[in-house]
Amino acid sequence: RDRVEKLYGNELCDHICALSTVQHGPPDQIVWFHNKLNGRLLDSPFESGIDWLKDATRLLDLKAFKNLITILWNIWNGCNNICFGARRMMLGGPPRSHRWIKPSIDAIKINVDAAIFDSVVDIGIIARDYDGFVLGGRAVFLNYKMDIEWAEMEPLREGIMWDRNNVTRALFETDCVSLVNQFKSRQGDILIFGFRLKEIFGLLESFINFKIKWVAHSSNKVADSLCKLAINKRCTFPFNMEYPSDIHGLVLVDAC
């Protein structure tokens, strides 16, 4: 377990360790999905990934399948992050900042993030102006299970709901590549996002000007830390310009 946590981090460790395992080869090597399945998911010929997933739904129980989907989603999202980052480097673009960047003088920047821990979902939202002054935000604790696709979308919806009555020009930032791509293409995948995307499109109509942008995780640290605060406190708490000292410390570190 320690090795898995070191390689994949805390968020994926529980999901990976919950999968069926069997010792294979040297003592320190573990192969997932083999026991009770005779290697069927790895060795059987499949014409497409969809066929492979359909077979997995028949072979795995509900908990194991949810863990599998969580891992696949994080791998895909991570590959997108690597692909986009590498492409910018090859094109000779400007070096990426590893901290929060101020928006233009007439805009408000809202950073959003989500985290899934065991059977709960936690959301972090923080809004700042062009001087880096905190206008408010929320840390949301949702004590129920949610598919990872919905969990990634929920903080953006929460951020828009919080912001739409106070701001006309907004820049939303998230470190979820797939979500940003969905909004840029304006095509909702019915199987994954469905009508919730259309609902969010409707909420954005209240803004005169808005933009949804992908940023690296290092530029979204405060929103991520708010998720962790919600996990630790196991409660939802909004804040305004008079925010707690623990949030103040996060903002100061992010500005350095």
UniProtKB/TrEMBL annotation:
GO molecular function terms noted in the UniProt entry: nucleic acid binding; RNA-DNA hybrid ribonuclease activity
Stored InterPro entries: RNase_H-like_dom_plant (IPR044730), RNase_H-like_EbsB-rel (IPR052929), RNaseH-like_sf (IPR012337), RNaseH_domain (IPR002156), RNaseH_sf (IPR036397)
Domain RNase H type-1: 122-230
SUPFAM superfamilies: Ribonuclease H-like
CDD domains from the UniProt entry: RNase_H_like
Pfam family, one: RVT_3
PANTHER family to which the protein is assigned, alphabetical: BNAC02G40300D PROTEIN, POLYNUCLEOTIDYL TRANSFERASE, RIBONUCLEASE H-LIKE SUPERFAMILY PROTEIN
Descriptive protein name: RNase H type-1 domain-containing protein
